[in-house]
Design a protein that fits this description.
Distance between the termini: 50 Å
Shape: globular
Structural class: alpha/beta
Radius of gyration: 31 Å
Number of strands: 38
Number of helices: 23
Strand order of the largest sheet: 3-2-1-7-19
Amino acid sequence: MTEQTSSSETPRRIVVAGGGPAAHRFADAMHARGLDGWHVTVLTEEAHLPYDRVALSKALTDTGVDLTLGMASMWDHASLDLKTGERVVRINAAAKTVETAAGNAYEYDELVVATGSDAVRLPIPGAGHAHVYRTLEDVWAINKAIAELTEKLGRKINAVTIGGGLLGLESAAGTEQLGATPVVINGAPWLMNTQLDEGAGQALGRLIEAKGFEVHGGVFPSEIVTDDDGQVTGVLMADERIIPADLVIVAVGVRPRDELFRAADGEEQLFSLGQRGGVVINDYCATEVPGIWAIGEVANFGGMCLGLVAPANTMAEIVADRLHGGDATFPGFDTATKLKLSGVDVASFGDAFARTEHALEIVYADPARGVYQKIVTTDDAKTLLGGIFVGDASPYMSLRPLLGRELPAEPGAFLSAAGGGEAPETELPDDATLCSCNNVTAGSIRDAINGCGACEGNAPVQELGELKGCTRAGTQCGSCVPMLKKLLETELTKSGVEVSKALCEHIELSRQELFDAIRVLELTSFEEIMAKYGTGAGCDICKPTIANILASQNSAYVLDAGRGTLQDTNDRALANMQKDGTYSVVPRIAGGEITPKKLGVIAAVAEKYGLYTKITGGQRIDMFGARLEQLPEIWKELVDAGFESGQAYGKSLRTVKSCVGSTWCRFGVQDSVAMAIKLELRYRGLRSPHKLKMGVSGCARECAEARGKDVGVIATADGWNLYVGGNGGATPAHAQLLAKDLDDETLIKYIDRYFMYYIRTADRLQRTARWQEELDGGIKHVEDVVVKDTLGIAADLEAAMAKHVDTYVDEWADTLKDPERLRRFRSFVNAPDQKDDSITFVPDERGQMRPATAEEKGKVLIGASIPVRPAAPETIGNEA
């Protein structure tokens, strides 16, 4: 075991050969444990930061997706050094150095080899014309080839994938999403034969054939056929058939990249290698040579090398633990697999093939439906050994953590497809692994929920997003998120925290239930709603929520008919309150486009009222420091000049950010500015559970950062790609692709449906990213509702949006027309002309003014405002 170094010594040098997920996890594990006394250099041959290979299929269909693992800022640490474009080609164990293809040498005290594996290439004629499926460059090349061939041939191309395992099926599904006809060739008689038995494999084959896939099993290819120009035309099979093909992808497995451990001619072989490759490691991931470790797919343990993320992560953590003085050991490989392919659920775990002596198999098969479920137990039907699920994998999450344990009910009770209903409730023991990717136990999650000391102030975690960030559970493949959410709710209930969907103590209905009730009964006032569904006088939760729901369903003036008293501070003032009690003024600048004349108006207003000006991240101009009684005066000048409220204060659409687009930019393929303006003018004033932001980029370079928005639109040569569910903030999320190559009309139709479905079903103050994440089925459910209209509500959602568009009225223009409405904008009710001089401003160092500090109070007064009760925490905040 290596001894931990102290900070007083010269840092010990760790070199990591490889820059994939295992290398990243090791660097992250060292960073988390503390780098005091260590310096880690990671050498990767790729040009990218370490990225998530599990999600490689996303990059096949969306070449702009960011798969970077973790936070890129981690590599800014002084003791972490990532060097891209550096492929290690030789280990000199005696000198303790490694050499790279670029001719550089790096000295080490500890060497961690994480070189991973290479895609296997077929030894058949024409194999050089096939693509492989392993790296970002590989999938980008496939994406480009499909686009070019489709255009060149003027038809839907045949994309043949050789290999019916996990990678092969992912590859084939990606080609189908890119518009090709997916064809799968599998040498074994059934698909996923490594993970599934014959019954399950046959069920899977029927399901994906029903989705339009063409499957050829039980025969191997013997040649990839090309024409005189080298263009692929087909695949010749061993039985002499030729399967038409325009593009071929080979995904038949991987081979460990163990060349660093193989001795050159005449040299002594220092390392033991497995029969099928990979360097042999012991149970703490060390090779036979002291100071040299191996993790991930290049490491052979127990005669096996596996390309799965969970064991690679575990190995990385073990080496980091050992280097810090720990005694962790590798427990062996977890071969559990879960795949969602074109809407088809597949899962396999444990002793799926019942190889354990006297194992018992409990099977339900329905060939007509393409459903196959099997549970493997000991011969007394009590202890769970493994299982396979195809077509309906819902029991997988409940059973997977119970592997090797006694089942809480008869095995047949878990076969949901047999008509027994949902799986029995399962109380996971603390040492049961809930998240296998990151090896997180149920006990660790319970500790976090109940306050484990890992979080600031030993605070208990009560939100799903916070729990994921704290424990890492659910942050990789995501398959454990439903169980994670269930465990969170169970533990909160045990702790006396009622897991209720009630809006607040006054209304027992959830926001969604209340929204539907108000809509169906056509209720229009707070009093009506409380009389029917509430108790008491309401609170600062239900009042603004009801006001928001009423505004979502009826575009009436938000402060009329008693609704003004329901609103948050910002909505009552139709402006964002700042920390000193003044307000900001944000006129709408649709799509970021503004004429010089209107710029002059903003400049004149800011000069006249002494306002601080700032260009926002949403491509608008924010003016700060307005007193409450000044707001109508300022807005009159702006409205007269053609401006309208930008609603930076409301839970509503904020901005639609755009790049320059095809009008000016030489890279633009669509007019992003025109589309952004069209969208902003359509959805302006749309009240929703939380603020909404949109972005429109005119090409794949993505200058408008559309994928960081609730709705993002990115131009393609064939139309628009629509992304949904993105946001920044404390827990940022990339928007996910919902539909691609849409024309203008279809794009707007889908956005109408998406926004209205979100408005009707999200919780109070829930952003689209979290709402989408917590929907059963996630983005697939959104696609079913918005694109496929599986609920049959598309017409209703579109009609609701059309009503909003037809009845929209600018709030500030309406305010200025009515003297009674203007009475709200006075510093003192009984002295309308009196101003409050308790707030002072001073010039800043950049030529504008700012609120005075406590020490500066009493100096020259250049502005004032009335102090007002601060807004509730969730309502404070300016446009980003």
